[in-house]
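queue> pop job 88
queue> type: inverse folding (structure -> sequence)
queue> payload:
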C-alpha cells in the first residue's frame, strides 16, 4: 500500500509498516469457500489496521485504531486493509504463506476486492463476514543467461513485449504444444479472482470462483488473428517459449514482480499456498464476479 501501520515496529521502503512485518511461513490450505463466519466472537485487541499512502486511508486508520486499538500484525486474528485494490493486492502478497484473513474497506477508487467503508459495527461485520479462499499462480522463469527465478501472482502472470517488435510465443499445456506460434503484444494467465482485472481488459473471460478454471488470454494477437484464448483446468501447467528472443525480447510479470529477457516461463496454480479474504454476507466475491459479467 505504501502506507503506515504504527502498531508495528519495522518498515521497508515502498511498503507499509504493516506489510513489512508480515512474514512468510509454510501452510497447508484446504481449497474451500466458507459460507459461515470464520472469526472468533471476541476480537478485542486482535485487529491490525493497514492503510494506503493516502490522506483518506490514513485518517480512516487513525479513527479505527482509536475505536478498536491496533494489534501488531504478527499477533492479529484479522487484518483490516484500508485503501483500494492495489493496497489489498500488496497486503495479500505480504501475507502469502500466513493465511491470516484480510477484510478490506474501500478508501480508494475501484475497490472490487473491498467492502464498503463504514466505521460503525465493524466488530459485528468481521464476525459475520464470509470467507473466500484463493490460491495464487506460481511463475518460474528462465532468462537469457539461464538464471531461474520464481514469483507468486494473485491476479495474473503476464508476458509482455519489451520493444516495438511484437512478441513471438510458443504455448504448451501439460507438455503438449497447443499453439506453435503466437504473434502478439503478450499473453496472460489469470486466477479466477484476477480474471476481472488485466485479463478482462484484454477481453478475456470472467471466471467464477470454484470453477476450477484458469483463463489464458492473448494480448493484441496478430497471428492467429482469430484466436481469443482458452479456459484451462486449474491443475494445468502452461509453458511459454519465447521465439526469436534476441530480436523480440519479452518480460514476464507476476502481479508486480518483473523478470526481463525471459526465454521460458512456466505457470501453474500453487495449491500449497492460500489466501483468505473476508466479505460482507450480502456482497461476497463470488457475487461480485458474477455481477461483473452483466456490467455494461
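queue> result:
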Amino acid at each position: 500500500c505504501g502506507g503506515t501501520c504504527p502498531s508495528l515496529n519495522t518498515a521497508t521502503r515502498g511498503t507499509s509498516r504493516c506489510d513489512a512485518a508480515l512474514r512468510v511461513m509454510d501452510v497447508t490450505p484446504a481449497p474451500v469457500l466458507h459460507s459461515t463466519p470464520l472469526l472468533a466472537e471476541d476480537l478485542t485487541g486482535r485487529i491490525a489496521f493497514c492503510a494506503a499512502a493516502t490522506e483518506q486511508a490514513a485518517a480512516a486508520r487513525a479513527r479505527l485504531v482509536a475505536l478498536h486499538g491496533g494489534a501488531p500484525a504478527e499477533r492479529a486474528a484479522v487484518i483490516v486493509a484500508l485503501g483500494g485494490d492495489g493496497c489489498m493486492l500488496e497486503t495479500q502478497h505480504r501475507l502469502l504463506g500466513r493465511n491470516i484473513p484480510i477484510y478490506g474497506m474501500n478508501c480508494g477508487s475501484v475497490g472490487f476486492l473491498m467492502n464498503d467503508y463504514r466505521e460503525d459495527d465493524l466488530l459485528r461485520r468481521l464476525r459475520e463476514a464470509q470467507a473466500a479462499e484463493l490460491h495464487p499462480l506460481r511463475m518460474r522463469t528462465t532468462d537469457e543467461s539461464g538464471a531461474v527465478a520464481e514469483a507468486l501472482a494473485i491476479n495474473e502472470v503476464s508476458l509482455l513485449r519489451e520493444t516495438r517488435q511484437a512478441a513471438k510465443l510458443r504455448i504448451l499445456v501439460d507438455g503438449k504444444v497447443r499453439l506453435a506460434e503466437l504473434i502478439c503484444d503478450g499473453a496472460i494467465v489469470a486466477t479466477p479472482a484476477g480474471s476481472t482485472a488485466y485479463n478482462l481488459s484484454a477481453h478475456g473471460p470472467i471466471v467464477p470462483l470454484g470453477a476450477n478454471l484458469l483463463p489464458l488470454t492473448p494480448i493484441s494477437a496478430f497471428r492467429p488473428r482469430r484466436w481469443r484464448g482458452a479456459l484451462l483446468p486449474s491443475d494445468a501447467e502452461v509453458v511459454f517459449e519465447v521465439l526469436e528472443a534476441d530480436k523480440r525480447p519479452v518480460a514476464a510479470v507476476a502481479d508486480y514482480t518483473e523478470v526481463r529477457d525471459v526465454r521460458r516461463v512456466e505457470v501453474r496454480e500453487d495449491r500449497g499456498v492460500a489466501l483468505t479474504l473476508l466479505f460482507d454476507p450480502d456482497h461476497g466475491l463470488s457475487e461480485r464476479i458474477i455481477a461483473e459479467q452483466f456490467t455494461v
